[in-house]
Amino acid sequence: MKIEIFSDFTCPFCYIGKTKLANAIEKVELDEAPNMIFRKYEIHPEIKGSIDIPYKDYMLDMMGGNQRKLDEFLEELTAHAKEVGLDFNFDTMIGANTADAHRLGKWVASENLDQQYTDLLMKAHFTDGKDLSDRNFLYTVIEQIGLSKEIAKEVLEEDKFAYELEMDQYAAQQIGVESAPFFVFDNRFGIIGVEPEEVFTRTLKQVTGN
């Protein structure tokens, strides 16, 4: 089974949805582990580097200064996260551009370490307050999963894996992806956004015919 996941490392619903999918996979008896393909979908391409104001202030600006709307949004996110055992720390979060993280992700995927890499980056952003646009931090994660910092530098400095990133964008256009997360199962079934875990379980069973 192939599962394509259009997501961003700083997308809260992507983190929650990916966790629900992982939980569903554990509950469904699959003959073999699915082939998970993480596809780039930046939610904040307008950010250059990282923002220099608190994350909550940035989100408040994006919501037109509506504090009540922001409070309700963050409360909803926190509740969704806790349902699947995730901790979101909005006080330390840093809004950041993720282009470099995605480029490295394509290389990491060629080494079959993309799931571990994605988990580490998401936790770093949502819980630990790390700046995902900081190349030195990204290199630290690369070394943490057992890969070469020097090769990682080459990937970024020489703009490698450009074709793979272009294919992600092309695939998103062909399918009509307009938001993240977006899950595609064997090119047949799709799940948009954060659905209940039962939806992921049911979809997995549909794909496998169970």
Question: What this model shows, in words?
Answer:
The protein is α+β, with helices and mostly antiparallel strands and 210 residues long. Helix content is 53%, strand content 10%. It contains nine helices and four strands; from the N terminus they run βαβαααααααββα. The protein has helices at 12-27, 55-62, 67-83, 99-110, 114-126, 135-144, 149-157, 162-175, 197-208, and strands at residues 2-7, 35-40, 182-185, 189-192. The longest helix has 17 residues, at 67-83. The chain starts with a strand and ends with a helix.
What attributes does this structure have?
210 residues; alpha+beta; four-stranded mixed β-sheet; 4 strands; globular
SSE arrangement:
Layout: E1 2-7, H1 12-27, E2 35-40, H2 55-62, H3 67-83, H4 99-110, H5 114-126, H6 135-144, H7 149-157, H8 162-175, E3 182-185, E4 189-192, H9 197-208
Helix pairs in contact: 1-9, 4-5
